[in-house]
Design a protein that fits this description.
Layout (H helix, E strand, L loop, with lengths): L18 H9 L6 H18 L5 H16 L6 H15 L4 H31 L7 E3 L15 H10 L5 E5 L6 H12 L4 E4 L4 H6 L5 E4 L3 E3 L4 E4 L2 H10 L4 E3 L6 E2 L15 H4 E2 L2 E2 L12 E4 L7 E3 L2 E3 L3 H9 L1
Parallel strand pairs: 1-2, 1-4, 2-3, 4-7, 5-8
Antiparallel strand pairs: 5-6, 6-11, 9-10, 12-13
Helix pairs in contact: 1-2, 2-3, 2-4, 2-5, 3-4, 4-5, 5-6
The structure holds 5-S-methyl-1-O-phosphono-5-thio-D-ribulose.
């Protein structure tokens, strides 16, 4: 995988051979972004199967369960993580022997890779129809190729609109504290020669008040069955400001990001280390001992969402029943 912690200074691939290494890569955000985490965790599970010395299926399943527990503990909010792990576990359990399971889980992960790119391209097309020639799209964090297997969700919508011949500009908030906007989205868009402007997170309201934002398109880490959108911290304030200024707010996400088993009050929002806030790229910016809160995600209620862009089409209000209809 690409080491996302090194970007944009260094573009480097890293390889892992054990589920433990993959778990560390997810926890430390070498790989991040909900769909990328989901497929990486699935690969960690395939490694667990391949490395197991078990000859009997029940013993293999036991070894894989131990890795699943470790991988599940890495990050709590993106549902894709659990989706990826569960899908590989199900595949192994449906096999008739340990030998068969070891092969079939690798095939399953390869299929998941292909399906993710396909889903992004599909949702990109549905979303692109909402984008007009000349639009400036505000995003948050990085919901691009880096955050997925390829193409991206929110940035997939932008890419598809550009492919339709539309001129689209992207407004990229830096996305403190991990700076996925400044480091990753700006990198990805510049590489693809899609015009983008980096702004401080604190500039979002001002830009909207000047009429400089036509659409907000963001990714999602989990969309619950009652239509609440969990995404990178800062997304909620974009949604509130969008409502204030009459700007449509669209989350873009594949089926693997929908959690039909939970409502919004049953989701854990990850709290990350204080150093991410009191330091900027390793350098302390706040007095020693100051208390810090560092929620990594926030929750946008359905009433702030114009429609959801998915690989199965657009979901419009009322979200709870439409999610159930389209995603079941
Ligand atoms: O903490 P991160 O960088 O993993 O958070 C990523 C996001 O919040 C993305 O917007 C989301 O995962 C969607 S990525 C297609």
């Amino acid at each position: 995988m690409i080491d996302q912690t090194a970007l944009p200074a260094r573009f480097a691939y890293v390889s892992y051979t054990s589920p433990e290494q993959v778990a560390t890569a997810i926890r430390t955000m070498v790989v991040r972004g909900a769909p990328a985490i989901g497929v990486a965790a699935a690969m960690g599970m395939a490694l667990a199967a391949q490395r197991s010395k078990a000859n009997r299926l029940p013993d293999l399943i036991r070894d894989m369960e131990a890795s699943a527990t470790l991988l599940r503990s890495t990050r709590p909010t993106a549902v894709n993580l659990f989706w990826g792990i569960d899908r590989v576990m199900r595949k192994a359990k449906a096999s008739s022997s340990a030998r068969e399971a070891k092969d079939s889980v690798v095939d399953e992960v390869r299929a998941m890779e292909d399906e993710d790119v396909e889903a992004n391209m599909k949702l990109g097309k549905y979303g692109a129809d909402l984008i007009e020639d000349g639009d400036t799209v505000l995003t948050q964090c990085n919901a691009g190729a880096l955050a997925t297997v390829g193409y991206g969700t929110a940035l997939g919508v932008v890419r598809a609109a550009v492919q339709q011949g539309k001129f689209v500009k992207v407004l990229v908030p830096e996305t403190r504290p991990a700076l996925q906007g400044a480091r990753l989205t700006a990198f990805e868009l510049s590489r693809d020669q899609i015009p983008c402007t980096l702004i401080a997170d604190t500039a979002v309201g001002h830009m909207m008040s000047l009429g400089r934002v036509d659409k907000v398109v963001v990714g999602a880490d989990r969309i619950t069955r009652d239509g609440f959108v969990f995404n990178k911290i800062g997304t909620y304030q974009e949604a509130v400001l969008a409502k204030r200024h009459g700007v449509p707010f669209y989350p873009a996400a594949p089926r693997s990001t929908f959690d039909l088993s939970r409502t919004h009050n049953q989701v854990t929002i990850e709290e990350r280390g204080a150093e991410e806030v009191f330091e900027v790229r390793g350098r302390r910016i706040a007095p020693k001992g100051v208390p810090v809160a560092n929620p990594a995600f926030d929750m946008t209620p359905p009433e702030l969402v114009r429609s959801m862009i998915t690989d199965r089409g657009l979901i419009r209000p009322p979200f709870a029943s439409e999610i159930a209809r389209l995603m079941s």
